[in-house]
C-alpha cells in the first residue's frame, strides 16, 4: 500500500504527456501511474496513428525506436483502478535516445472487435511484433502486409496468451494425430514461395529456393531462412521463427514470482543469471525492496562473467562459421575456467539462477577473490592472442568487412540494440545511459565501431570483454561488506530470524515459503544491457502470488527481423557470416 | 616405359591405402593436439584402432540410395575419385627401383588424372538431386577449372629446369639443389592449387560445412561416403608425394637413411603441413577464391614461367 501511495505522489505529469495534451487536447488521454516511472498514457484507438507519428517525427527529441509492442488480456484483472475499460490492451513502448526516456502508450480494445490500425508504415520492426500480438491474442492489425501466425504453427487453434486458453496439457484433450489431421499439418508445412512474398522467376532467370534450416549447422538452433537464389546470389531471404517457442510468457502467469526465476535463465540461455536481473529488478520495484549494496555488486560481477561467457561463445562460433576451426576450442577452455568460478560462487554453471528477490541466493564463498584475480590476470593476454588469430586474419577481414552493414538510423528503425547498435558508431549502452544495480560506480568504456558490418559487430564484442574484465576487477577490489539479501518480508526465501518468536511472523513466513510472496498490484518494465542487446521484463502484478502478465522483450527478436535487409544481393556464404555476427539465441527469439 | 614387378604394384597399392586410412587417425589426433584437445585416444595404443573401428562402422552402415537420385551415376561417382587418385600413384617414383611404371610423360599423366577426379564431385552433386549438393558441385566445377589452369603451369618451371616430364629424371635433376629453392614461386602456387584440387580446407567450398552442410556428398552414406572420405586422403597423399617429387628432391637425401624412408618422411611432413593449414585458416568466399585464382595466382605462375625461361636460356647460351 505504501508503495502505491508513493507512486501516485511521484508520478506528476511528465513533460511528454503535457506535450501530447498541448498538441491533441487532454480529452481521451488517461494517464496511468506505474512503478517504473515510465510515462504511461491510455489513448483512443482513433488517435493512435497520429500520436505515434507525432512522437516519432514531429516532437522535439523524438522517440525513434519502437522498443516493444505487446498485448495484455485484461478480462480477469482485478486491480484496474483508474484505467479505462478494456478486454485486450495493446502496449506500445517507445524509446527516445535524445531524451534518454521512454513512453508507454496503451490502447483499450473490446473483446468483440479487437482490431487496430497497423503501424508497420511507421516502424519497420512493428511487422513481427504485430504478428506476435495477433498470434498470441488474436488482435487484428488492419493494413498489416502479412498478418500470419509467427511463433505457433498455422494450424493452431486459439490464441495462447488469452486467459481462457489452457496452460497445461492436462487441461486439454489428449493429443492425437489421426491421418486426416496429419495430412492437414503436412499440407500446412508445404513451401509456397508466393506466401512468403517471393516470385518464382524474373524476366531473365528462374529462381532457386533453398531452405536453410530449421536444422542447419550455421543457424545456431532451430531457425529457418527461406532463400530465393539466383545462382548463389541471394535475391531475398525470409526468416521463419517459432521452432523454439516454449511459452515462457505463459509460464510466467502460473509460476510463483520466485519459481519463475530459473525460467529467465533459459530465455537467453547463454546469458545465465544476467537474465534474472531485469525480472527481479521489476519485482523489487513493485514490492519496494531496496537491494543492499553488496548484493548489487555481486550481481554486477556475475552479470559481467556471463557477458564474457556469452561473448566468448559468439567469438568462437563467429570464426567457426567463417571456416576457422580452431579458435572455438581455445575459447571453450577459457569459458570452462570462467564457469568454474561461476560454479564455485553459485553452485551451477550455465543456468545458475543465483539471483533472488531482494539480493542473491547466498553469500560469496571463502576464497572467491583468489580465483577471480587469477582469471583477470590470465584472460586479457588470451584475448590478445585471439586478436592475432581471428581479427587480424586477412581472410576473416575479407569475408566480413562491408558485409551485412547497416547504419545507425536503420538500426534504430529496426529496433537493433546492444553491440549491433554500437557497431554502427552510436555509443549507447544501457549501463551508462541509465545505470542500474550500481553501474554508475564503475569505470568502463563503451566500445564502438564505425561501419556496422559483421567485422565491427565482432570487434565491439571483443572490446566489451576487456571492459567486462575491468568491471569485474573493480568488483573484486571494492566488494562492500554487508548482507547479501535485503531484509524484507517479500524477499525469497523470506527472513526467518523472528519466526520462532511470534506467531504472526511464523504464519507470514509459512505462507511466503509455500505460496510465495504476494507482490502488490502494479506494473513495471525494467531493462538491462544483456549480452545481446536490451532485455526487458514488463511485469504486471494483480496482487497475487503469480504474475498477471509477463512480457519479455528480448534483443534477438528484432535482430533476426533485419536479416532480409542485411543479406539481399549477397551470397550464401555472406549470409552465414551475417547470422554469425548477429549473435542470436533462438530461445531468446521465440521465448 | 618400364613396368614394376607385381610385388611392387601390390605393395604400393596396399601401403597407399593403408596410409590413407591411417590419415583419418593422424588428422584427428593432430588437430586435437593443436586445438588443446586429445582426439581419439581410447581404442588400442594411442587410439590407433580408431581407424579399424571407423572402417567397420562405415562398412556396416546402411548403404542408402535416395529414391530421387540417378542410381547408376550415383554409384559410379564415388568410384571415380578412388580410381583416378589410385591410378595417379602409378607414376610416383618412390625410390630407385620402387614404382609402378616409369614413363616419359609421367607429370602430364598426373595432371590429367587429377583433373579427372573432379568428375566424381560434380557428378555426385548433380545426380543427388539435392540443392545443397548441386551448389557444392557447381562450386567444385568452377574451382577445379580455375585452379587447374595454373596448377599445370606452376610445374612447368620444374620441367624447364629438369628438361623432362619424366618424374624419375626430375628427381635425379635435383641432386645439386632441390627445386623448392629456384622454384619457390612454383612451389607456393602448386601447393595452393593442390589444396584447391583436393577440396581441403580452406578451399573446401564444395563441402563447406557451415554453408552447404556437406555439399556434394550430402546424400551419401555408408561405404559410398567412405570412398569420398578415403578418396580425399588418397589425394592428400598423392599430392604430397607429388610435391616431394617435384620440389623436395623425391627420395634423395643423406645416405644414413634408405631412399624410400626419405621419401616417406618428406611426404609425411607435407601431409602434416596440409593438416596444419586446415586447422588454421578460415574459408574464403566462392567469388574471392575465383578472383584469387585468376587475378593473383595465374599472373604469378606466368611470371615465374617467364623468369625461369629467361634464366634457363641465359645459362644455356
Structural summary, described in words:
The complex is a heterodimer of chains A (591) and B (317). Chain A is α+β, with helices and mostly antiparallel strands and 591 residues long. Chain A is 39% helix and 15% strand. Chain A has helices at residues 2-11, 15-24, 48-58, 126-137, 179-189, 248-252, 261-265, 276-287, 293-321, 327-346, 368-391, 394-400, 408-413, 419-422, 430-433, 454-477, 503-514, 556-561, 563-567, 572-582, 586-590; strands at residues 30-32, 40-42, 65-73, 88-96, 101-109, 115-117, 140-142, 208-212, 224-230, 233-240, 355-356, 359-360, 522-529, 534-541, 547-553. A five-stranded mixed sheet of chain A has the order 1-2-5-4-3. In chain A, a hairpin with a 4-residue loop joins strand 4 and strand 5 (101-109). In chain A, helix 9 (293-321) runs antiparallel to helix 10. Chain A starts with a helix and ends with a helix. Chain B is mainly α and 317 residues long. Chain B has a two-stranded antiparallel sheet. Chain B has one domain. Chain B has helices at residues 6-34, 50-60, 71-88, 106-127, 131-154, 156-162, 167-172, 184-198, 209-212, 222-247, 259-280, 286-316; strands at residues 2-3, 101-102. The chains are: A alpha+beta (591), B mainly alpha (317). The interface between A and B is medium-sized, with 27 and 29 residues.
Protein traits:
heterodimer; A: 591 residues; Beta Polymerase, domain 2; Cytochrome-c3 Hydrogenase, chain B; three-stranded antiparallel sheet; 15% strand; disordered N terminus; B: 317 residues; mainly alpha; two-stranded antiparallel ribbon; 12 helices
Assembly state: heterodimer
For the sheet with most strands of chain B, the description reads: 2 strands, antiparallel
Shape of chain B: globular
Major β-sheet strand ordering of chain A: 1-2-5-4-3
Overall pLDDT of chain B: 86
CATH topology of the largest domain in chain A: Cytochrome-c3 Hydrogenase, chain B
Secondary-structure topology with pairs:
The complex is a heterodimer of chains A (591) and B (317).
Chain A: H1 2-11, H2 15-24, E1 30-32, E2 40-42, H3 48-58, E3 65-73, E4 88-96, E5 101-109, E6 115-117, H4 126-137, E7 140-142, H5 179-189, E8 208-212, E9 224-230, E10 233-240, H6 248-252, H7 261-265, H8 276-287, H9 293-321, H10 327-346, E11 355-356, E12 359-360, H11 368-391, H12 394-400, H13 408-413, H14 419-422, H15 430-433, H16 454-477, H17 503-514, E13 522-529, E14 534-541, E15 547-553, H18 556-561, H19 563-567, H20 572-582, H21 586-590
Parallel strand pairs in A: 2-5, 6-7
Antiparallel strand pairs in A: 1-2, 3-4, 4-5, 8-9, 9-10, 11-12, 13-14, 14-15
Chain B: E1 2-3, H1 6-34, H2 50-60, H3 71-88, E2 101-102, H4 106-127, H5 131-154, H6 156-162, H7 167-172, H8 184-198, H9 209-212, H10 222-247, H11 259-280, H12 286-316
Antiparallel strand pairs in B: 1-2
Helix pairs in contact in B: 1-10, 1-11, 2-10, 3-4, 3-10, 4-5, 5-8, 5-12, 6-12, 8-10, 10-11
Amino acid at each position: 500500500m505504501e508503495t502505491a501511495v508513493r507512486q501516485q505522489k511521484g508520478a506528476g505529469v511528465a513533460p511528454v504527456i503535457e506535450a501530447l495534451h498541448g498538441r491533441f487536447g487532454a480529452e481521451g488521454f488517461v494517464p496511468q501511474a506505474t512503478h517504473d516511472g515510465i510515462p504511461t498514457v491510455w489513448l483512443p484507438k482513433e488517435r493512435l496513428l497520429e500520436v505515434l507519428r507525432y512522437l516519432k517525427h514531429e516532437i522535439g527529441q523524438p522517440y525513434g525506436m519502437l522498443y516493444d509492442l505487446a498485448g495484455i488480456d485484461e478480462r480477469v484483472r482485478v486491480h484496474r483502478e483508474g484505467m479505462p475499460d478494456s478486454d485486450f490492451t495493446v502496449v506500445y513502448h517507445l524509446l527516445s535516445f535524445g531524451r534518454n526516456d521512454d513512453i508507454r502508450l496503451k490502447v483499450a480494445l473490446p473483446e468483440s472487435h479487437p482490431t487496430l490500425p497497423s503501424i508497420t508504415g511507421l516502424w519497420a520492426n512493428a511487422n513481427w511484433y504485430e504478428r506476435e500480438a495477433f498470434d498470441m491474442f488474436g488482435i487484428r492489425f488492419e493494413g498489416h502486409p502479412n498478418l500470419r501466425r509467427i511463433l505457433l504453427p498455422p494450424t493452431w487453434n486459439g490464441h495462447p496468451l488469452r486467459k481462457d486458453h489452457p496452460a497445461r496439457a492436462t487441461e486439454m484433450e489428449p493429443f492425437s494425430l489421426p491421418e486426416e489431421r496429419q495430412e492437414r499439418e503436412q499440407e500446412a508445412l508445404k513451401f509456397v514461395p508466393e506466401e512468403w512474398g517471393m516470385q518464382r522467376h524474373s524476366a531473365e532467370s528462374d529462381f532457386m529456393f533453398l531452405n536453410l534450416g530449421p536444422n542447419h549447422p550455421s543457424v545456431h538452433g532451430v531457425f529457418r531462412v527461406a532463400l530465393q537464389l539466383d545462382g548463389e546470389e541471394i535475391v531475398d531471404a525470409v526468416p521463419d521463427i517459432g521452432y523454439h517457442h516454449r511459452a515462457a510468457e505463459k509460464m510466467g502467469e502460473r509460476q510463483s514470482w520466485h519459481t519463475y526465476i530459473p525460467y529467465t535463465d533459459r530465455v537467453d540461455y547463454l546469458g545465465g543469471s544476467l537474465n534474472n536481473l531485469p525480472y527481479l529488478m521489476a519485482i523489487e520495484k513493485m514490492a519496494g525492496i531496496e537491494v543492499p549494496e553488496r548484493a548489487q555488486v555481486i550481481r554486477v560481477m556475475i552479470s559481467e562473467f556471463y557477458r564474457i561467457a556469452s561473448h566468448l561463445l559468439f567469438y568462437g562460433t563467429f570464426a567457426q562459421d567463417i571456416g576457422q576451426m580452431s579458435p572455438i576450442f581455445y575459447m571453450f577452455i577459457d569459458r570452462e575456467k570462467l564457469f568454474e568460478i561461476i560454479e564455485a560462487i553459485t553452485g551451477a554453471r550455465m543456468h545458475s539462477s543465483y539471483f533472488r528477490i531482494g539480493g542473491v541466493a547466498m553469500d560469496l564463498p571463502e576464497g572467491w577473490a583468489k580465483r577471480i584475480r587469477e582469471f583477470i590476470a590470465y584472460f586479457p593476454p588470451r584475448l590478445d592472442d585471439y586478436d592475432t588469430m581471428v581479427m587480424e586474419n586477412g581472410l576473416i577481414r575479407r569475408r566480413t568487412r562491408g558485409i551485412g552493414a547497416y547504419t545507425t538510423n536503420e538500426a534504430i528503425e529496426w529496433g537493433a540494440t546492444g553491440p549491433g547498435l554500437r557497431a554502427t558508431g552510436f555509443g549507447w549502452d544501457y549501463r551508462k545511459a541509465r545505470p542500474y544495480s550500481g553501474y554508475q560506480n564503475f569505470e568502463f568504456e563503451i566500445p564502438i565501431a564505425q561501419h556496422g558490418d559483421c567485422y565491427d559487430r565482432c570487434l565491439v564484442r571483443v572490446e566489451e570483454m576487456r571492459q567486462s574484465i575491468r568491471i569485474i576487477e573493480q568488483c573484486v577490489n571494492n566488494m562492500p561488506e554487508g548482507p547479501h539479501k535485503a531484509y524484507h518480508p517479500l524477499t525469497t526465501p523470506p527472513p526467518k530470524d523472528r519466526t520462532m518468536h511470534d506467531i504472526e511472523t511464523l504464519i507470514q513466513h509459512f505462507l511466503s515459503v509455500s505460496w510465495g510472496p504476494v507482490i502488490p498490484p502494479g506494473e513495471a518494465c525494467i531493462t538491462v544491457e544483456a549480452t545481446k542487446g536490451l532485455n526487458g521484463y514488463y511485469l504486471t502484478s494483480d496482487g497475487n502470488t503469480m504474475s498477471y502478465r509477463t512480457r519479455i522483450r528480448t534483443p534477438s527478436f528484432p535482430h533476426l527481423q533485419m536479416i532480409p535487409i542485411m543479406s539481399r544481393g549477397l551470397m550464401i556464404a555472406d549470409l552465414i557470416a551475417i547470422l554469425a555476427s548477429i549473435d542470436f539465441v533462438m530461445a531468446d527469439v521465440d521465448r | 616405359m618400364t613396368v614394376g614387378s607385381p610385388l611392387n604394384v601390390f605393395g604400393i597399392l596396399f601401403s597407399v591405402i593403408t596410409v590413407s586410412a591411417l590419415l583419418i587417425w593422424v588428422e584427428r589426433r593432430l588437430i586435437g593436439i593443436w586445438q588443446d584437445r586429445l582426439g581419439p585416444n581410447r581404442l588400442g595404443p594411442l587410439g590407433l584402432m580408431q581407424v579399424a573401428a571407423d572402417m567397420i562402422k562405415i562398412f556396416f552402415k546402411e548403404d542408402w540410395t535416395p529414391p530421387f537420385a540417378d542410381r547408376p551415376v550415383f554409384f559410379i561417382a564415388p568410384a571415380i575419385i578412388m580410381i583416378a587418385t589410385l591410378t595417379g600413384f602409378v607414376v610416383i617414383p618412390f625410390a630407385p627401383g620402387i614404382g609402378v611404371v616409369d614413363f616419359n610423360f609421367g607429370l602430364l599423366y598426373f595432371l590429367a588424372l587429377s583433373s579427372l577426379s573432379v568428375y566424381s564431385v560434380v557428378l555426385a552433386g548433380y545426380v543427388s538431386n539435392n540443392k545443397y549438393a548441386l551448389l557444392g558441385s557447381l562450386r567444385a566445377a568452377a574451382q577445379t577449372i580455375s585452379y587447374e589452369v595454373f596448377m599445370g603451369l606452376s610445374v612447368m618451371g620444374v620441367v624447364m629446369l629438369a628438361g623432362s616430364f619424366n618424374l624419375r629424371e626430375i628427381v635425379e635433376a635435383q641432386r645439386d639443389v632441390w627445386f623448392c629453392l629456384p622454384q619457390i614461386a612454383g612451389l607456393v602456387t602448386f601447393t595452393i592449387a593442390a589444396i584447391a584440387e583436393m577440396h581441403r580446407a580452406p578451399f573446401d567450398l564444395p563441402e563447406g560445412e557451415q554453408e552447404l552442410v556437406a555439399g556434394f556428398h550430402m546424400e551419401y552414406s555408408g561405404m559410398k561416403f567412405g570412398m569420398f572420405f578415403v578418396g580425399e586422403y588418397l589425394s592428400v597423399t598423392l599430392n604430397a608425394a607429388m610435391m616431394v617429387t617435384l620440389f623436395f628432391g623425391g627420395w634423395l637425401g643423406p645416405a644414413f637413411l634408405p631412399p624410400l624412408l626419405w621419401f616417406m618422411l618428406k611426404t609425411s611432413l607435407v601431409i602434416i603441413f596440409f593438416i596444419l593449414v586446415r586447422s588454421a585458416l578460415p574459408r574464403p568466399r566462392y567469388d574471392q577464391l575465383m578472383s584469387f585464382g585468376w587475378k593473383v595466382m595465374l599472373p604469378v605462375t606466368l611470371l615465374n614461367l617467364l623468369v625461369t625461361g629467361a634464366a634457363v636460356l641465359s645459362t644455356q647460351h
